[in-house]
Amino acid sequence: MATMDRPLTQNIRADRDFATLADYRKTGGYEGLRKAVTDLGPKAVQQWVKDAGLRGRGGAGFGTGLKWSLVPIGQAPDHPPYLVVNADEMEPGTFKDRLLLEKDPHQLIEGIAIAAYAIQAQTAYIFLRGEYRLAAERLTRALQEARAAHYVGAHLLDSDFSLDIHLHTSAGRYICGEESALLNALEGKRATPRPKPPFAVVSGLWGRPTVVNNAETICNVPHILRHGADWYKGLGRGADAGTKLFGASGRVKRPGLWELPMGTPIREILEEHAGGMKDGYQLRGFLPGGASTDFLLPEHLDVPMEFDTVAKAGSRMGTGTIIVLDDKTCPVRMVLNLERFFAQESCGWCTPCRDGLPWTVTLLQDIVEGRGRPEDLDTLSRLTRMLGPGNTFCALAPGAMEPLQSALKYFREDFERYIFQNRPLKEAV
């Protein structure tokens, strides 16, 4: 792909650690911000992003420009809205934002400035996963460079718009990736989800209208302003616009990340870019978008990686980072490992999640240790419904149930082998 066809990673090169301000400017850095504050009003910027068809890259796929347009601009001049960037990235199997934060921090900063201008926020926060220490160092340096060059601060680029950007390193917990729990944590409170409504765009951080966007989502914004909506839509192969950082982990020959067009088939990602399965292993299934998505099978390899298409196949595109299940890894133990994580990371705010996830872990533990009963499979199936959408305070437990419910559907014989024959799949070392 030509450089213009992979805008998110155009500044990431093997011969340098990361792109400085000078490096970023060489490829048109901050031209999008200049266009926004000089030639376009906030509503016009929102329309550009709407027209481009940018959907959130954090997993939900909500229209970015539409979310911005829900913010009531100008209704309370003394209480402007906030912009918050979710860079917590604690989803198992997901590591896409880290690459952008460490290697091209100015791309995120320019995107923040444009997004903040579009909703007329005067303060923005980057909510960063605490373990991302290198990203924090480079973002801190980039913010210093941006302030010195008047891309951030009072009257940036000699305009009437002013913006402060603060880097907040999180104390941790997976629940902080949930929008309202993140806002509570940012306010110094316990990281628990908030009731909805009101939604954050109406009453968010400290009661003000707040937009929360994923880091990769925001990194797309400068390129839309620089090259236009039609160009951005043309990058995708199907219904969804733009490019995406797709990844693969597990027993593939070349695990990693690649910027590819939206709509790239899963087969191309795994076989061409990840190099296929390691010698001696065969593909048995995969989680297409991180740990909280449903398993798909080899028969789904030709499904394009698009939000709606993957949903029709029975899963979610999620973060676009594929976790591979090979034929020598036990799917029951794999799911047990995931459920242990989700149970540990539950905030305990609602009963189904607080009590249901540990119960799920106990049942799976009994099965793999030879104490499983036939009725345990029915109980697990019932739990996937009891902890499903609409029954919990947020999406943590429903997400945790996705790999379990699909494993029971596709790999039931593995569960039954433990219970009826006590002969689990012999795993590879």
TrEMBL record:
Its EC number is 7.1.1.-. The keyword Metal-binding applies. Gene3D superfamilies: 3.10.20.600, 6.10.250.1450, NADH-ubiquinone oxidoreductase 51kDa subunit, NADH-ubiquinone oxidoreductase 51kDa subunit, iron-sulphur binding domain. Its cofactor is FMN; [4Fe-4S] cluster. InterPro entries: NADH-UbQ_OxRdtase_51kDa_CS (IPR001949), NADH-UbQ_OxRdtase_suF (IPR011537), Nuo51_FMN-bd (IPR011538), Nuo51_FMN-bd_sf (IPR037225), Nuop51_4Fe4S-bd (IPR019575), Nuop51_4Fe4S-bd_sf (IPR037207), Soluble_ligand-bd (IPR019554). Keywords: 4Fe-4S, Flavoprotein, FMN, Iron, Iron-sulfur, Metal-binding, NAD, Quinone, Translocase. Composed of 13 different subunits. Subunits NuoCD, E, F, and G constitute the peripheral sector of the complex. Belongs to the complex I 51 kDa subunit family. This is NADH-quinone oxidoreductase subunit F. It comes from Methylomicrobium album BG8. The lineage of its organism: Bacteria, Pseudomonadati, Pseudomonadota, Gammaproteobacteria, Methylococcales.
